[in-house]
């Protein structure tokens, strides 16, 4: 312990602060000279907020009591569960012992968690160097700080948690959020990624431990979009968890209560949105990994009033569309043939429905952009969820999935019925594309892939988009070995290309929303658009689709390699800005007034984007007194 003299000369500003907090502070705080027994005397410190958490002398991590958190402006900077020192030590030991159990996510990298720890420590020590390393070796380290390892990190977060990163708004903070946002030290925040941890990748409800996802997404914002790391903020909205294991786990870092539902839930998210937009009116909020039932509702609730989007619904949709258009081109056909594709989608959650809606709209646009085109486009899709093929005969169909429920008579004519299995559907439909967003690893079984051999396409496409690795609907090895080298293959998590012998390679594309969300966020920021419009999202998707050359696409490469992520993000951001200008939404940015922005050519916009991106270079520092 640090020993401070009993007689301390308090500066006038400190005195003011102490008085301000006198209601929650122990009364003895102001009078440390009195007869307080040794050990229970408070230690006077001249720091607040994050400065305390980053100081090894004073930091107590999750052991800060609620009154201390209030007194020291720490509220929101720590996970909500206040822990005893004993529990803290237990958490530490769990992590230490895990070294004995080989930490792994799939067969690809048994050392993934250890690498994450080392990178995380670097992140805590030196942000510039961390991002320099990440950018220099993005192929190697994106799978560590992002998908798939980030999933493993969230699953083990109570042991891995060291220095808090980001903010926590919990159900217990209702009524406080407007002031809590001021505990965050940055005057300017450009990008927030927020989650409620209710559907983390395909791993289900991980409660407060889902904060890892928001951190991983923002790492890509910095690395790919060049958002200044001092202006990003990962956020966890902790409304409880329905994960029974976590509810019983004494080492869980979040609120140990069931999730709030209905209006109670919405009121927490509403308060969070009001609070962050009141402090940072120009911030962009990306919603991430909210369970479907809230993903759509919240998107509808906020999208016309706040600068926000949902990555799982809208980012994924754009990436899938780009890949599907690539699959059409890979057959040597023009993109305009897209409305002829027969598409079977496994999974009707936030991601699946997002893709279906966007694909239907894209087809309708190509067919004349009218009601009839929109109506006829939906007949190109067959949607299979946990209960099989969705038809109008089903007793209850989620309203978001309802437009894609097949007509029973029509489906009977195709030899199918309500609830038909995926393999039956593939056998009867003989689709051009089989797309998985089901979170069920191995769903594209040998039988399903065998059935796809009868596809009427000259080059069937398989998109096994679920994350992380073990949730992929199939591996590229399985797909190429059964269907041969001619297919187009994409997966949400990274896999290696497959050696097919005799110098032939089965290319494995990574169909992940990481190719769009950084550019959507950056383009919105630099255009100063008040909202993220459908047109801006469409422009982003089209830009990604057009990014791949004819030669690449014919070779089965429909997405760029991750080594080009900064370049594609710059292009996507420029496309988003141009669309915002076109729609008269661009209100400019401190670096570029709206009227100047409107005068720029495409090349100049690209240059503006490039120049606005933060690079991990050490600035020269000089000291100046406050
Ligand atoms: N690659 C990407 O960029 C990307 C983007 C978003 C989501 N995802 C992944 O997509 C998956 C789903 O995400 P979500 O938000 O839609 O989840 P969700 O839980 O909302 O939806 C899952 C859907 O799969 C269905 N399903 C379950 N078992 C099934 C089965 N046996 N056969 C067919 N369907 C079945 C469910 O009924 C539900 O409709 C997750 O693994 C997530 O990681 C990937
Ligand atoms: O996080 C990812 O890798 C993609 C996507 O947002 C997901 O939820 O799976
Ligand atoms: Mg997600």
Overview of this structure, please?
With 626 residues, this protein is an alpha/beta fold. The chain folds into four domains: 12-69, no CATH class; 85-290, Rossmann fold (3-Layer(aba) Sandwich), CATH 3.40.50.10380; 315-513, Rossmann fold (3-Layer(aba) Sandwich); 516-612, no CATH class. It has 27 helices and 16 strands. The strands form four sheets. It has a seven-stranded mixed beta sheet, sandwiched between helices. A five-stranded parallel beta sheet has the order 1-3-2-4-5, with helices on both faces. Strand 10 (461-464), helix 21 and strand 11 form a beta-alpha-beta unit. Helix 6 crosses helix 11 and helix 16 (350-366) packs across helix 17 (371-377). It is globular and about 85 Å long. The model is unreliable at 1-33 and 102-107 (pLDDT under 50). (2S)-2-hydroxybutanedioic acid binds next to helix 15. Involved in the regulation of sugars and amino acids metabolisms during the night period. It catalyses: (S)-malate + NAD(+) = pyruvate + CO2 + NADH.
């Amino acid at each position: 312990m640090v020993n401070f003299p009993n007689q301390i000369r308090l500066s006038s500003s400190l005195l003011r602060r102490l008085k301000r907090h006198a209601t929650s502070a122990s009364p003895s705080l102001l009078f440390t000279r009195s007869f307080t027994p040794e050990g229970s005397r408070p230690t006077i410190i001249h720091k607040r907020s994050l400065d305390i958490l980053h100081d090894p002398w004073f930091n107590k991590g999750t052991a800060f009591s609620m009154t201390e958190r209030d007194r020291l402006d720490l509220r929101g900077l720590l996970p909500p569960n206040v822990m005893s020192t004993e529990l803290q030590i237990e958490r530490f030991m769990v992590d230490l012992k895990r070294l004995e159990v080989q930490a792994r996510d799939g067969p690809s990298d048994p050392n993934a968690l250890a690498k994450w720890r080392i990178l995380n420590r670097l992140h805590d020590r030196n942000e510039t160097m961390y991002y320099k390393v990440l950018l220099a070796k993005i192929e190697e380290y994106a799978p560590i700080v992002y998908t798939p390892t980030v999933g493993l990190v969230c699953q083990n977060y109570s042991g891995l948690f060291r220095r808090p990163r980001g903010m926590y708004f919990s159900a217990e903070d209702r009524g406080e959020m407007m002031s809590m946002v001021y505990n965050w030290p940055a005057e300017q925040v450009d990008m927030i990624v927020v989650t409620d941890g209710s559907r983390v990748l395909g791993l289900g409800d991980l409660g407060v431990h889902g904060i890892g996802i928001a951190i991983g997404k923002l790492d890509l914002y910095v690395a790919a979009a060049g958002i200044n790391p001092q202006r990003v903020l990962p956020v966890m909205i902790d409304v409880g968890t329905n994960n029974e294991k976590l509810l019983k786990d004494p080492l869980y870092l979040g609120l140990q209560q069931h999730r709030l539902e209905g209006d109670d839930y919405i009121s927490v998210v509403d308060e969070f949105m009001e609070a962050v937009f009141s402090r940072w009116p120009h911030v962009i909020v990306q919603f991430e990994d909210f369970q479907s039932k809230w993903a759509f509702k919240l998107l509808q609730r906020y999208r016309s009033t706040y600068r926000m989007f949902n990555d799982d619904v809208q980012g994924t949709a754009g990436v899938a569309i780009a890949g599907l258009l690539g699959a059409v081109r890979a057959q040597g056909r023009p993109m305009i043939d897209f409305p002829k594709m027969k598409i079977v989608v496994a999974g009707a959650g936030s991601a699946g429905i997002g893709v279906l809606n966007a694909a239907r709209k894209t087809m309708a646009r190509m067919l004349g952009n009218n009601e009839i085109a929109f109506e006829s486009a939906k007949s190109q899709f067959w949607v299979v969820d946990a209960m099989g093929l969705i038809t109008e005969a089903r007793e209850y169909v989620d309203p978001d999935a309802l437009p894609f429920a097949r007509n029973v008579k029509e489906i009977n004519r195709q030899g199918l019925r309500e609830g038909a299995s995926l393999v039956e559907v593939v056998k009867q439909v003989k689709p051009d594309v089989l797309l998985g967003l089901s979170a069920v690893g191995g769903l594209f079984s040998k039988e399903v892939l065998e059935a796809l051999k009868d596809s009427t396409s000259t080059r069937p496409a398989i998109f096994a988009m679920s994350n992380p690795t073990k949730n992929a609907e199939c591996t590229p090895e399985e797909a190429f070995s059964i269907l041969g080298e001619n297919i187009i293959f994409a997966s949400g998590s990274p896999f290696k290309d497959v050696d097919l012998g005799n110098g032939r390679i089965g290319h494995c594309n990574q169909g992940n929303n990481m190719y769009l969300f950084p550019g959507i966020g950056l383009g919105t920021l630099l255009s100063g658009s008040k909202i993220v419009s459908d047109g801006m999202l469409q422009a982003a998707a089209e830009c990604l689709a057009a990014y791949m050359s004819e030669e690449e696409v014919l070779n089965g490469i429909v997405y760029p390699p991750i080594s080009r992520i900064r370049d594609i993000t710059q292009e996507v951001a420029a496309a988003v800005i141009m669309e915002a200008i076109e729609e008269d939404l661009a209100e400019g940015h401190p670096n570029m007034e709206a009227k100047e922005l409107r005068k720029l050519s495409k090349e100049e916009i690209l240059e503006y984007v490039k120049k606005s991106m933060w690079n991990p270079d050490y600035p020269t520092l000089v000291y100046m007194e406050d």
